[in-house]
Specification:
The chain has 313 residues and is α+β, with helices and mostly antiparallel strands. The chain folds into two domains: 225 residues, 2-Layer Sandwich (Thymidylate Synthase, Chain A); 59 residues, no CATH class. The chain has a six-stranded mixed beta sheet. α1 crosses α11. It is globular. InterPro entries: Thymidate_synth/dCMP_Mease, Thymidate_synth/dCMP_Mease_dom, Thymidate_synth/dCMP_Mease_sf, Thymidylate_synthase, Thymidylate_synthase_AS.
Length: 313
C-alpha cells in the first residue's frame, strides 16, 4: 500500500490549506491517481487496522439498494450513524439537548461528548425498535444504493448495476460499462452527496478492471475504506461475469487531509507496510446480491494497531 502512503506524503508536502463545508479545515490537492493490481493481494491498509467487516456490510448494503441505516445498525455498522442523526436532531421531532455542531463539540467538550453518545445510542435503539421511526429518520435519502439499483426516470426505474453486469457479459469490449451515483435531480435530497460518484469497468485478457472517480476524498478516514470497498466490488462483479480480477484505478478530485488528522497521518507514515491479506468469498452458487457479511472474509491480515480520529460531519 505504498501508493496510499505516497498520497499522504504528497498532500503534506504540497497541499493547499483550505476551508471546507464542515468548518474543520483541510490540506488539499486536486487530481491524483493510484493503481492497485488486485492479483498481488487484497488492498486493505496495513499501516493501521481497518475494519474490513464494516466495509463488507456497507458494500452489501449498497448492492441491495438499501438506504436506511437500520440494516447497518443490525449489522453493528455505525459508518452512517452521524449523517442520519444529524437529520434527526435538525427535525421538529427532536426535543433533546442541543446537538448543534456536534461534530466539533464532541471533540472539544468532554461533558458534551457523554451527552452526545447517550443521545446517539437512544436514537439507534429507537431505529431498531420502531419501524415507523426508522422509516422516517433512519433513511438517508436517495444515496448510493438507490442510484446504483433504482435510478428513477420518466420511463421507469433503471437498475444500473444489473445492466452493467449484463453488458460486461454480452459486450465486454464496450466503453459504456458505467455506474453513476451523481443524480443532479436528487442530490439535494441526500444526507450526503456521493463522494465516490462514478465508476467504469474495463475488460481485457479475461480480467476485469475498474476506475473510480471520487470527487471528495477524506484521505485518512475515508480513502482506505474506499480502496478496499471497490477492490471487493471488482472481485464480486468479476466472479458474477466469469472473469479474473485486474486493476483498481482510483482517481481523486479534491484529496484532502483534515487539519485535525495531521498527527494521525504522521504516525501512520512512520509505520512500515506489511504483506497484503487474501480475500475469501463463499459464493455457494449464489449471486453476489444474495451474499451475507459472513460469506466474505480475509486471511493473513496482520496490520499495525488502529489509529482513531474524529469524523468531520
Amino acid at each position: 500500500m505504498k501508493q496510499y502512503l505516497n498520497l499522504c506524503q504528497h498532500i503534506l508536502e504540497t497541499g493547499t490549506k483550505k476551508g471546507d463545508r464542515t468548518g474543520t479545515g483541510t490540506y488539499s490537492v486536486f487530481g491524483y491517481q493510484m493503481r492497485f493490481d488486485l492479483a498481488k493481494g487484497f488492498p486493505l491498509l496495513t499501516t493501521k487496522r481497518t475494519a474490513f467487516r464494516l466495509i463488507v456490510s456497507e458494500l452489501l448494503w449498497f448492492l441491495k439498494g438499501d438506504t436506511n441505516i437500520r440494516t447497518l445498525i443490525q449489522d453493528r455498522n455505525g459508518i452512517w450513524d452521524e449523517w442520519a442523526f444529524e437529520r434527526y436532531v435538525e427535525s421538529d421531532a427532536y426535543t433533546g439537548p442541543d446537538m448543534t455542531d456536534f461534530g466539533h463539540r464532541v471533540v472539544e467538550d468532554e461533558q458534551f461528548a457523554k451527552t452526545y453518545k447517550a443521545e446517539l445510542a437512544a436514537f439507534k435503539e429507537k431505529i431498531l425498535a420502531d419501524e415507523d421511526f426508522a422509516r422516517k429518520y433512519g433513511d438517508l435519502g436517495p444515496v448510493y444504493g438507490k442510484q446504483w439499483r433504482a435510478w428513477d426516470t420518466d420511463h421507469g426505474v433503471i437498475d444500473q448495476l444489473a445492466q452493467v453486469i449484463e453488458s460486461i457479459k454480452t459486450n465486454p469490449d464496450s466503453r459504456r460499462h458505467i455506474v453513476t451515483a451523481w443524480n443532479p435531480a436528487e442530490v439535494d435530497e441526500m444526507a450526503l452527496p456521493p463522494c465516490h460518484l462514478l465508476f467504469q469497468f474495463y475488460v481485457a485478457d479475461g480480467k476485469l478492471s475498474c476506475q473510480l472517480y471520487q470527487r471528495s476524498a477524506d484521505v485518512f478516514l475515508g480513502v482506505p475504506f474506499n480502496i478496499a470497498s471497490y477492490a471487493l466490488l471488482i472481485h464480486l462483479i468479476a466472479h458474477e461475469c466469469g472473469l479474473e480480477v485486474g486493476e483498481f484505478v482510483h482517481t481523486l478530485g479534491d484529496a484532502h487531509i483534515y487539519q485535525n488528522h495531521l498527527t494521525q497521518v504522521q504516525e501512520q507514515l512512520s509505520r512500515e507496510p506489511r504483506d497484503l491479506p487474501k480475500l475469501n468469498v463463499n459464493y455457494a452458487g449464489r449471486s453476489i446480491f444474495d451474499l451475507n457479511v459472513e460469506d466474505i472474509t480475509i486471511e493473513g491480515y496482520d496490520p499495525h494497531p488502529k489509529i482513531t480520529a474524529p469524523i468531520a460531519v
